[in-house]
Design goal:
11 strands
Length: 192
């Protein structure tokens, strides 16, 4: 019986399965013109009180999208720890309203990057509660620098979120459930 109890407790102690929330930036302002989306994704993961937010430029219709400034609207109070790569503030992002955290990323197409990541701390319950819509309905925005098929920079503009997806946890929940059921079966067998 002791082994069964240990197996059950170990399965439950492994931790809660987690999934990240992914926002897709599909809504362009007029600066992006005819450049097709989606333009970037925003991956929000939460471990304890630290949220990691990763903006990643995408490719679409032969264009590759790189990033400059990015903005998010964070729910509740938060802090942006010092010592990170980029400086921060708050502000208005062209066509998408005000955001309470704007990361001052690379400026200009020659210094645009494929990905921008940063961490913030707060007291959220899950990754999908870290960000909240601003007055215009957007949770995230990025300054997008499109590059054509030859690698030449094109126009520049901003894109905001349009869709949200919760990413599956990769089977961790099923593994924990299976281990728990096995532990319970072992306990029942010992008690019989």
């Amino acid at each position: 019986m002791t082994k069964g109890v240990v197996a059950c407790v170990a399965a439950l102690a492994i931790g809660q399965a987690s999934a990240n929330t992914i926002y897709t930036l599909t809504n362009p302002n007029s600066g992006l013109g005819a450049d097709p989306g989606p333009y970037a994704t925003v991956d929000v993961g939460l471990v304890g009180t630290t949220a990691t937010i990763i903006f990643t430029g995408l490719s679409s219709g032969g264009d590759t999208y790189k990033l400059g400034d990015v903005g998010v609207n964070v729910a509740g109070s938060f802090s942006y720890p010092s010592g990170q790569t980029y400086t921060s503030g708050s502000g208005h992002e062209d066509g998408f309203g005000d955001f309470n955290l704007v990361i001052n990323g690379p400026n200009g197409s020659s210094s645009a990057v494929a990905s921008i990541s940063f961490t913030i701390t707060g007291s959220w319950l899950s990754d999908n509660s870290v960000l909240t819509p601003n007055a215009g309905g957007s949770v995230a925005v990025a300054h997008i620098y499109p590059f054509g098929p030859t690698g030449a920079p094109l126009n520049t503009g901003y894109a905001g979120n349009g869709t949200t997806t919760d990413v599956p946890d990769g089977g961790t929940t099923a593994l924990l459930l299976g281990a728990s059921v096995t532990g319970i079966a072992l306990i029942r067998r010992k008690l019989s």
